């Protein structure tokens, strides 16, 4: 399951990130978004979703949300 299908307010554990872009992987890692880390979907928007990772909240687009498997 990916973040686009996640319930709002429920905490999940990131299983893996599916992307071929090394720069994107490095960016997500810098946010604390990597396998084994807890993540919570705060809200779903039309073309994005707001997630809570560690002590931060981030707005990520739909394509990126689909690459984060939980």
What is the gist of this entry?
The chain is α+β, with helices and mostly antiparallel strands.
Describe the overall structure:
The structure is a single chain. The protein has 70 residues and is an alpha+beta fold. The chain has one domain (3-69): SH3 type barrels (Roll), CATH 2.30.30.90. It has two helices and six strands, in the order ββαβββαβ. It has helices spanning 22-31, 62-67, and strands spanning 11-13, 16-17, 38-44, 48-53, 56-61, 68-69. The strands form two sheets. Strands 1-3-4-5 form a four-stranded antiparallel sheet. A two-stranded antiparallel ribbon has the order 2-6. A hairpin with a 3-residue loop joins strand 3 and strand 4 (48-53). The longest helix has 10 residues, at 22-31. It is globular. The mean pLDDT is 92.
In whole angstroms, how far apart are the ends? 6 Å
**In what order do the strands lie side by side in the largest sheet?**
1-3-4-5
CATH-level-4 superfamily name: Ferrous iron transport protein A (FeoA)
Q: Helical amount among residues, as a percent range?
A: 10-25%
Please tell me the total number of domains: 1
Principal-axis shape equals globular
* Secondary-structure element order, N to C: EEHEEEHE
Computed over alpha carbons, the radius of gyration is 11 Å
